[in-house]
Design brief:
By secondary structure, the chain is α+β, with helices and mostly antiparallel strands. It contains five helices and seven strands, in the order E-E-E-E-H-H-H-E-H-E-H-E. Helices cover 28% and strands 31% of the residues. Strands 4-1-7-5-6 form a five-stranded mixed beta sheet. A two-stranded antiparallel ribbon has the order 2-3. Helix 3 packs across helix 4. It is globular and about 45 Å long. The chain starts with 5 loop residues before the first strand and ends in a 5-residue tail after the last strand. The model has no long low-confidence stretch (mean pLDDT 94). The chain binds magnesium ion. Magnesium ion binds next to strand 1 and helix 1.
Length: 165
């Protein structure tokens, strides 16, 4: 399976609800609302996990971490990301690069992008230069524009690990 590069795509949305912070890209960010979720609601890491699982054709995040499973209640999404990292390494791959887009009007994400990239690089055992995180608004249009929730998209490229058989 590990002779060629593989790509994957991921997308996730969570609605705003009561709370005083959101988790995005593994970073806790103070906000006027939280994100409603079974886990910590980190849409960016969920989209990235789905992209990694997609690249491996291993189904989706709901299959690997079902909301019905009490183990994942309030789960740290960085643990889910590290699990996906293990899955790709055991199949003879390393992360070539990944690119994320987070869509929201608020909170303002620019001050947190560098730390998100560092968290993701750490969890996936790749270089920060191979991890891109971008933030944008939807110009006040749609559910993200109305500040009803946050959306995230991710793409990844996996490379065969030259050291593996
Ligand atoms: Mg999710």
């Amino acid at each position: 399976m590990n002779r060629w590069p593989r790509i994957g795509i991921g997308y996730d949305v969570h609605a705003f609800g009561p709370g005083e912070h959101v988790m995005l890209g593994g970073v806790r960010i103070a906000h006027t609302h939280g994100l409603v979720a079974h886990s910590d609601g980190d849409v960016a890491l969920h989209a990235l996990c789905d992209a990694l699982l997609g690249a491996l054709a291993l189904g989706d995040i709901g299959h690997h971490f079902p909301p019905s499973d009490e183990r994942w209640r309030g789960a740290d999404s960085r643990a889910l990301l590290r699990h996906c990292g293990e899955l790709l390494r055991t199949r003879g791959y390393v992360v070539g690069n990944c690119d994320l887009v987070i869509v929201c009007e608020r909170p303002r994400l620019a001050p947190h992008i560098a730390l998100m990239r560092a968290c993701i690089a750490d969890d996936l055992r790749c270089a920060m230069e191979d991890v891109s995180v971008k933030a944008t608004t939807s110009e006040r249009l749609g559910f993200t524009g109305r500040e009803e929730g946050i959306a995230a998209q991710a793409v990844v490229m996996l490379h065969p690990n030259g050291d593996s058989p």
